[in-house]
Protein: Phage tail sheath protein
Organism: Paenibacillus sp. BIHB 4019
Amino acid sequence: MAGGTWIPTSLPTRPGVYINFVQAAVAAITGGERGVVALSLSTYAGTAVEERYYEVETVADAEALFGVDNIGPITLAFQGGAASVLVYTLPDEAVTADYTAMRAGFDTQFFNVFVAHEYDVTEQAALKTWTIANRADGKQYALVIGGDATTDADPALGNARSLLNEDDYIVNVINGAVIGDTSYSSSEYAPFIAGLIAGTAINASITYATTTANDVTKRLSNAQTNAALAAGSLVLTNDGKRVKIEQGITTSGAKIRSIRARQAVIDDIQTTANESYIGKLPNDDDGRAALIASVTKYLETLADNGVLSDPVVALDPNNPSTGDKVFLAISYVEIDSMERIFMTINV
């Protein structure tokens, strides 16, 4: 499926939907598939074979495919809220070429969030490059990463990782979780965060969402928490009663809720246009009006559900829609969740 971003001086040649998402960014368009987490497994003992993609919808299916002792990341993703988990089976003792092949294969698979549940600095850099390149080509997903026990012990190291991986679509967890008597590094617990992101409605935030943990591996002070948020780090906080997500942000400081809404808008419009408009509608006044009406209806549906407000769709006055090209100017106001409440109490 062709798509992605475009620049006026070098327009793509393949048929497809190309979207320039500026921050300021006939079938009825329906909400696309949500809640799919993608990850790789390097250890498995069930019926699965190496270098294959498996879409898993239950823990029981995962146990049969990969063995009960090897499905920890998958179980965490389901606990977070994933509807399904897309798993790639790496070969034993995977090398760089195996990870490259894995990413290339995922290019043709659909998922909402990719999670790296093993800590590897080199692979994290490759995943960042891959994510940015895919976004330019029109493939939308979030990436969740973390650290190991050593980096989790020092929030400054986790914050440095956030700065190194700064991007609107990357989430970096900087402290681990304790479940029962078992401690998980931030990378090991990242599948839960990925599942939470994928499974949360696009009109809701994961800020203050409760986790499955009973404690964290590193409790951050107030000053450390503020520094982490300023760096774009995702922090797990034990407030004395529960372990929660301090704030749902990406490494750029953008709100995860906002990014997920952008992904939904791009995915849904692109999917429906590819299926119902491209090659089927004439590029005349009536055809363009039908396209505008459908996109407007879709955005109005999101507005009615509290995802955005004030949507406007029109032909782009700066780029004439001629020949086989149609340029739309789409704008709306992102709606945030209430995250900070200030009170003045007079006694």
The longest strand covers residues 308-315. The chain has two domains: 36-256, 277-347. Residues 17-32 have pLDDT under 50 and may be disordered.
